[in-house]
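Minutes, project check-in
Item: structure for the 216-residue chain
Input as provided by the requester:
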Amino acid sequence: MKLVIGNKNYSSWSLRPWLLLSFHNIPFEEERIPLNQPDTQARIAACSDAGKVPVLLDDGLTVWDSLAICEYVSEVYLGGAGWPESASVRAEARACSAEMHSGFPEIRNRLPMNCRAMGRRVELTDALRREIARIDRIWSGCRQRHAAAGPWLFGQFSIADCMFAPVAFRFRTYGIELSQQAAGYMQHLLSAHALRQWMAQAEAEPEVIDAEEVGR
């Protein structure tokens, strides 16, 4: 099995399936294609006609969307354990993940993931503040409801944690203030061994994409 990803410093979508595989110690080959290079599009197109990373290649199968990859890994390699066992909690985890997958354009555009940057500051527009507040409510609400089951959003580690991992890096980079409960969850997420490994590898990357170097 091979996972094709972009720069670890910038590629938020690549992080999600990488984290699921790494957290569960599922063996896979990693192919990193640096973004915004002259050969980037050609190299990605050789893996998937969608033209974007991440891409999972497994025994002749190609899966090219981060959430779809996580679903596939959960079904084939984790026996469904990528999601909570309870049907009701699983539905909640899927709803939160889908909201993250398709929403929060202000966070995506104004707070691009830049793992190795610290102390960056950007203007917090009203729209951006509303999205940050929504993330805070999701994190703090999930932790209140599921704290007894474990330290992750829904107790045990799940795809939902993978979907929000890039947001944790974003909030860290731009010094976003959160409620105590949401901040505690973010710190727990960032302290995970797999995320610390991703961070170290992001810091070692030589590429700089100027358009992603936002804030000062």
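Outcome recorded: The chain has nine helices and four strands.
No further action items on this chain.
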